[in-house]
Structures are given as C-alpha cells and as structure tokens.
Amino acid sequence: MYLWNLNQKVWLLYKEEIQEEVSFEGKGFVEILGIISKEEIKQGILDMTHYFENNAKDIYSELKHSKPATEQELKNLKDIIKTSVPLSLEVLLLTNNGGLLLRDNYKSISIDKILDAIDVNQINGYWKRNYIPFAADEENNFLCLEHENGIIKI
Fold first, then answer.
1. Of 37, 63, 62, which is closest to residue 49 (Cα–Cα)?
2. DSSP for residue 47
3. What are the structural domains, with CATH classification, of the chain?
4. CA distance linking residue 92 with residue 97, whole number of Å
5. CA distances (Å), 80 to each of 74, 76, 139, in order?
6. Share of the chain above pLDDT 70, in %
7. For 45-59, 102-116, 117-131, which range has the lowest pLDDT when averaged over its residues?
8. Per-residue b/e over 74-90, b at no fewer than 16 CB within 10 Å?
9. Judging by DSSP bridges, how do beta strands 31-32 and 9-13 pair with one another?
10. Strand residue runs (E) in 48-128
11. E strands along 22-81, which residues?
C-alpha cells in the first residue's frame, strides 16, 4: 500500500488487483489505481520527496535525515510479524525508513517504530494481530494496514 498526499488528494496504490473505493472510516477518501510496479512506487516516493524539498522545506528538513531500511531489517520485520509485507510498504521502507508525510499529520514510521507499535498495542482490545502500522501522527495514532486484504485502519 502506498499513500500519496499532494494537493490534498490521497492516493492508495498497491500491487493487488482491487478496483473498489476504500474509505478512511469517514476521514477522507482513497482512489485505488490498479497494478503498479516496484519502480513506479519508488518513483512516486522520490517525487514526493522532491516535492517537499522544493515546496515544504520544514517537512523536507526532517525527511532528509531518514536513512533507507536495509534488506536485513526488512527480513527481520517479516520474520517477527510472521507474514509478508505489501510491496509498496517494502519499497517505502527501503526508500525512506520513516518521516515521509503521507496524510494530514501522519508520517511514515521506521521498521523499529513499527515493531514497537505492534509490541505495545497488542494488549489493546482494538488491535488485531494482522495490523501492520505504517504511519503515525504526533499523538501516536496509527494508520495500519490489514496485511491480508490491504485495508487501511485508523
């Protein structure tokens, strides 16, 4: 799954062939755009980074310090959560391991923060075992992906 928040429009892109609208539980809208490649996802992330560099220096100043995750860190994540990670989330983490503004005040989180969030929130009755958090706001409210179906939960 891949969110793109430019010009106040949020796009959700992911590899599976789902062509239906998915809501942000009343907090926005999403347009799903068929199948995209790993290269297209990476280019979209790089385009967003370039946009922030030229148009939102405060966002970019934090973003430029984020280092890409390593293949080993990604493998460790998959081993710990015992499931695959959607291609677009893999590409996001391998391109920018946290700090990318995705939606409103939600920024992508690093692999370490993903694992911390899973560990802390599994005791919460609302947290499902198949949730993969990928972004958080300043109050640590998470955007999560249900890894079986690609649905985003707030």
1. 63
2. H
3. 38-153 (3.40.1580.10)
4. 7
5. 10, 6, 25
6. 73
7. 117-131
8. beebeeebeeebbbbbb
9. parallel
10. 101-103, 106-108
11. 31-32
- Kindly report the length of the chain: 154
Residue 87 predicted with pLDDT over 50: yes
Q: Listing from the earlier edge strand, what are the strands of the sheet with 131-136?
A: 101-103, 106-108, 131-136, 142-146, 152-153
* Token representation of residue 11: 């796009």
Contact 89, 108 (CB under 8 A): no
Show the tokens assigned to 59.
């966002």
Q: Residue 112 corresponds to which tokens in the numbers above?
A: 């370490």
Helix (H) / strand (E) containing 12: strand 9-13
CA–CA distance, 148 with 55 (Å, rounded to integer): 36
Report pLDDT digits (tens) over 26-82: 333 333 444 677 888 888 888 889 898 999 888 888 888 889 999 999 999 999 888
